[in-house]
Write a structure and sequence with these properties.
The protein is α+β, with helices and mostly antiparallel strands and 391 residues long. It is built from 11 helices and 19 strands. A 7-stranded mixed sheet has the order 1-2-19-18-17-3-4, with helices on both faces. Strand 7 and strand 8 form a beta hairpin. Helix 2 packs across helix 11 and helix 8 crosses helix 9. The longest helix is centred in the first third of the chain and has 27 residues. The protein starts with a strand and ends with a strand.
């Protein structure tokens, strides 16, 4: 049974003062739970090790996809294949941050990979800032969390300059390069998450600027806001959306990468990791690995399984089937046109009220922060964010 500890919720006025304005769900309920999941030090360490191992596995799988030209198999749009290859081949295209979704890890249940949000992961603000503030507000020890997300991302921004070297050498090598941060106008959650990342990059030592996507200029000479060119562009827009909705931009960004006119964050190769088709590749490369669930491009036989579409989000178009193919749970959505994988079903840990918990593990060069989503069998956009405390 998942153990939770009741705490005083942060006042909404405070949340809004720090830019966290999506604190209330559409039904009027609080999005951030007034409870914390109790995690032991051993469990926190196991999450840390699992994330590091999984990332190494994804890197190996990415190399396998590229060497064997398996882009179609995992749903990479044809107009981004060259961008994926180019960004993969050059270390300057640094992966800033990502989030693993995991089953288990608490209540004695083994950690299992569900998917990897490698390109545009959500819940950054909640994990890095809000759950830490809950500890502080409740007079609890602020260090009693597996949560160094802010510092890890700050160091990773420095690695855009130092790469694999010690990030403390940033000032020694930095030459005034600028990062442009962009999100789509109209989504406060996306905008404020992007602005949080801008603050972190600024603290790392970069010159930064924010510009809505529709205000950004693109040419073969680079990426601009107004007349100002930028060496780096961070966009909180999924790569697959660019490929489908802006195909000409996808090709132009490829030329920008090819001609080394700008570096785009997160890199195009994160689209491989983002694709749930990679779950099948991982199972082929690491069959029966203890961190993986059996995954196929065909429905599994004789066991319950989950159907997921390659680029689905927030539980949309997810269906859970029983061992005889009967539907146990299902969500509609807008991602049904993407190809699907079929992943062995594993039940998420539950608390005494029967609520399910899915772990979100942030990764920035290494595993760096833990948080939970709580909901029903399928974790969707009405699920709650639950912080944690290491006991």
């Amino acid at each position: 049974m998942v153990k939770v500890r009741k705490v005083k919720p942060l006042p909404k006025e405070y949340l809004e003062s720090i830019g966290f304005v999506w604190h209330t769900d559409s039904d009027g309920s609080d999005y951030v739970a007034d409870e914390l999941v109790e995690v032991s030090e051993e469990e926190a360490e196991a999450y840390y090790k699992a994330g590091n191992e999984l990332y190494e596995m994804f890197v190996e799988a990415g190399e396998y996809v590229i060497q064997n030209e398996l882009f179609h198999e995992i749903g990479i749009p044809f107009n981004l294949i060259d961008a994926v290859k180019l960004s993969w081949e050059n270390d300057v295209h640094w992966h800033i941050y990502s989030r693993f979704d995991l089953a288990g890890g608490i209540d004695g249940k083994p950690i299992k990979l569900l998917e990897f949000n490698a390109d545009t992961p959500t819940a950054l603000f909640e994990t890095a800032i809000v759950q830490w503030a809950i500890l502080k507000y409740n007079g609890l020890e602020e260090e009693r969390q597996f949560n160094s997300v802010y510092e890890a991302i700050r160091d990773n921004f420095k690695r855009l300059v130092t790469l694999h070297e010690d990030p403390s050498r940033f000032e020694e090598w930095y030459e005034g390069w600028k990062i442009l941060f962009s999100s789509i106008k109209g989504s406060l959650e996306d905008e404020n998450t992007t602005r949080l990342l801008e603050v972190i990059a600024s603290e790392a030592g970069f010159e930064t600027h924010f510009c809505y996507v529709d205000e950004v200029g693109f040419s073969e000479e680079g990426i601009f806001c107004g007349e100002e060119p930028y060496e780096f562009w961070f966009k909180l827009i999924p790569w697959e959306n660019i490929a489908i909705d802006e195909p000409e931009l996808a090709l132009l960004l490829t030329e920008i990468i090819k001609n080394q006119k700008a570096i785009i964050l997160n890199p195009a190769y994160t689209l491989m990791f983002q694709s749930k088709g990679m779950l099948k590749i991982l199972w082929d490369l690491f069959p029966n690995h203890p961190l993986l669930l059996e995954t196929s491009f065909e429905p599994l036989k004789g066991k319950p399984y989950v159907k997921k579409h390659f680029f689905g989000r927030e539980g949309e178009n997810v269906a859970i089937y029983g061992p005889n193919g009967e539907v146990l749970a299902k969500r509609d959505g807008e991602y049904g046109s993407f190809p699907a994988v079929y992943q062995e079903f594993v039940e998420l840990p539950k608390d005494e009220q029967g609520r399910y918990y899915q772990a979100g593990l942030f990764f920035a060069y290494e595993s760096c922060g833990l948080g939970y989503r709580r909901g029903s069998k399928i974790i969707d956009n009405m699920s709650k964010f639950v912080g944690h405390i290491v006991t």
